[in-house]
Design a protein that fits this description.
Layout: H1 2-16, H2 19-39, E1 41-43, E2 46-48, H3 55-78, H4 82-96, H5 105-119, H6 127-138, H7 144-156
Antiparallel strand pairs: 1-2
Helix pairs in contact: 1-2, 3-4, 5-6, 5-7, 6-7
Length: 159
């Protein structure tokens, strides 16, 4: 379980005196806790006493947190705040350790081609269908905007 790995790593970082990494993991764990609290209560009409996040939900949260760091770093760079941009990129590096390994462009292209074939997409209007199909395999393993751009290019060029 990814969440348990993060908890274990937090303890290791604290013992090793790595306060920056520990701080990032504490923040991530607090986001997990908030999501668990949000899930708690009534689900499907039944009272739920304890909510446990699935690995898929944990990966979704990590993807969102990574995206926030990347966007913040870009904003800081545009504002000539390299120090803050660097801090955000370091945080992003810590978070990426817990995300699935990113795929190469060739591997992404194979999955996109498979998704185009599976959805029988023929033009740019079908980008949404192809994106949904491709994301089943690519979620957390590739940049969403790059996937969208690749799909658009392939559909514009007739696969």
């Amino acid at each position: 379980m990814i969440q348990q790995k993060i908890k274990d790593d937090l303890i290791d970082f604290l013992k090793a005196g790595k306060s920056f990494e520990a701080g990032v993991l504490r923040l991530i764990l607090s986001v997990f806790k908030n999501k668990e609290i949000e899930k708690k209560g009534r689900q499907d009409g039944n009272l739920v006493q304890e909510a446990i996040l699935t690995d898929e939900e944990v990966v979704d949260i990590l993807i969102k947190e990574a995206k926030k760091r990347k966007e913040a770093a870009d904003i800081y760079k545009k504002g000539d705040r390299e120090d803050l941009a660097e801090k955000e990129m370091k945080e992003l590096g810590v978070i990426k350790k817990y995300l699935p390994e990113e795929l190469s462009a060739e591997e992404i292209e194979k999955i996109v081609d498979k998704a185009i074939a599976a959805t029988n997409a023929i033009n740019v209007k079908d980008i949404g269908k192809v994106m949904v199909e491709a994301m089943k395999e690519l979620k957390g393993r590739a940049d969403t905007s790059a996937i969208g751009a690749m799909i658009k290019k392939k559909l514009e060029n007739g696969k």
